[in-house]
Amino acid sequence: MMSRPVLPRSRPQWLSPRVLRTEVLGGLVVALALIPEAISFSIIAGVDPRVGLFASFTMAVTISLAGGRRAMISAATGAIALVVAPVVREHGVDYLIATVILGGAIQALLGLAGVARLMRFLPRSVMVGFVNALAILIFTAQLPYLTDVPWSVYALVAAGLAVMVGLPRLTTVIPAPLVAIVTLTAITVIAGITVPTVGDQGELPHTLPMPGIPDVAPTFETLRIIGPYAVAMALVGLMESLMTAKLVDDITDEHSNKTRESWGQGLANIVTGFFGGMGGCAMIGQTMINVKSSGARTRLSTFLAGVFLLILVVALGPVVALIPMAALVGVMIMVAVGTFDWHSIHPTTLRKMPKSETAVMLATVAVTVATHNLAIGVVVGVVLATVLFAQRVAHLVSVDSVLDPDGSTKIYRVTGQLFFASSNDLVFQFDYANDPANVVIDLSQAQVWDASTVAALDAVETKYHQRGINVSITGMNESSKQRHQALAGRLGAGH
Is Transmembrane helix included in the keywords of this UniProt record (predicted)? Predict the structure, then answer.
């Protein structure tokens, strides 16, 4: 009996020395950038900085295993902090943790229900607006660190930007952001320069996070309190995460599993809640550092970002506290510049782009920046895009008529997509008073999409019948015919 040849197993991508170095260094840079962000978001939510830091650790580690988008970073975010802040303020931290767990469960259920498939309805103009708004928010978030500070802060930021712009032209072996952070930290410590540091942002934890159960009563009253916040958290987190995943897909030319990412975000929030974290979602800034600045492409970078974060704040807290905020501000400014879609505002693009597309992009940016809520901006952009699209398509419907030579029959030919926006005026396109005894409405070049169109056709038939004119509708394709047969005469048209 012949033995089968043993085929060599393919080595995981991240085990390649070059890839491994990229993933490790990328995870380290992200971990350093996560620390001040997590502390800031904790302050926004009204909780101890450790709550945000532990959330960033558990979110990153869990999503690295459960998520559907490799190399994307999930951690405590400002959007989630804004949503859950009222819970902390009015009911305390235990209710916050219960909200995070319930919000995660809702996200997991929505993921399993296939809500990620709705991403296909996201117009490109909304996506561009989302990206540009994110870039603006990332940049404006750095302004407080550049206000009322010593002049040396501006010099350090400029030096950091120079390193991050110039170093990649010489070598990409080590991520430029990491070199900038280490270099500026060394300069401030050796030269004794007094500038705001990470340690000034809040106390770093000294112990590991421990699992626990929130001290809330399992009653309907508790559900009534946390339910609305949990739903809002779930929707905002999913929207930001799925749109960030789509953005990373475009950058890496890879398709990700959005359904897995949805329930993975839910699982990450559930785990985060049981470890006392404030919850979170995908972070565009840190993801751009990982994917664009560092060149990471695997789950290892996301996993290590969480692990390094915990090591840095627990074991190396005194060292991390010395990092000047100017170094991290410089990194985030580079992220903002790299994230913004400059092509979208180029004069040539604006001249060639349909005005409706530009209007949707600008509306998404304006609302997002004004509210500091990406979810609201995206919803407004999608609604505006839908309205403008409906108006545009509605004008593409035409009705032409021809009279038979014997004068006994008039044929109306309807062309275009018939739905609520285009069919409302359909009833006024016919000459009821002067038409002959027989009228034919030819829909062979049209498509019936909804009940509004069927109701309009019913109204047309009723008006002709009231004048004793025989009317027949012909040429419908199979789907239009089925829709018409199911609803005709049942919608109250003309009565």
Answer: yes
The predicted-structure confidence for 196-246, as pLDDT tens digits, reads as follows: 998 887 777 888 888 999 999 999 999 999 998 999 899 888 988 998 998
**Phi, psi dihedrals of residue 160, rounded to the nearest 5°:** -65, -40
Enter the pTM of the model.
0.72
pLDDT digits (tens, 9 = 90+) for 280-322: 999 988 898 899 888 899 999 999 999 999 999 888 888 888 9
Query: Order of strands, edge to edge, in the sheet holding 438-448?
Result: 398-403, 409-418, 438-448, 470-474
pLDDT tens readout for residues 254-279: 989 999 999 999 999 999 999 999 99
Which residue, among 315, 326, 334, has the nearest Cα to 197 in the 3D structure? Answer: 326
The full set of domain ranges for the chain reads: 14-343, 398-487
Query: Token digits for 328?
Result: 């991290």
Please check the confidence at residue 489 and state whether its pLDDT lies above 90. no
Alpha carbon distance 462, 109 (integer Å): 47
**Radius of gyration from C-alpha coordinates of the chain:** 29
β-partners of residue 400 are 413
What fold characterizes domain 398-487?
A: Transcription Regulator spoIIAA (3.30.750)
Task: Annotate the chain with three-state secondary structure.
Answer: CCCCCCCCCCCCHHHCHHHHHHHHHHHHHHHHHHHHHHHHHHHHHCCCHHHHHHHHHHHHHHHHHHCCCCCCCEECCHHHHHHHHHHHHHHCHHHHHHHHHHHHHHHHHHHHCCHHHHHHHCCHHHHHHHHHHHHHHHHHCCHHHHCCCCHHHHHHHHHHHHHHHHHHHHCCCCCHHHHHHHHHHHHHHHHCCCCCEHHHHCCCCCCCCCCCCCCCCCCHHHHHHHHHHHHHHHHHHHHHHHHHHHHHHHHHCCCCCHHHHHHHHHHHHHHHHHCCCCCCEECHHHHHHHHHHCCCCCHHHHHHHHHHHHHHHHHCHHHHCCCEHHHHHHHHHHHHHHHCCHHHHCHHHHHHCCHHHHHHHHHHHHHHHHHCCHHHHHHHHHHHHHHHHHHHHHCCCEEEEEECCCCCEEEEEEEEEECHHHHCCHHHCCCCCCCCCEEEEEEEEEEECCHHHHHHHHHHHHHHHHCCCEEEEECCCHHHHHHHHHHCCCCCCCC
The CA-based diameter of the chain, rounded to the nearest angstrom, is: 102
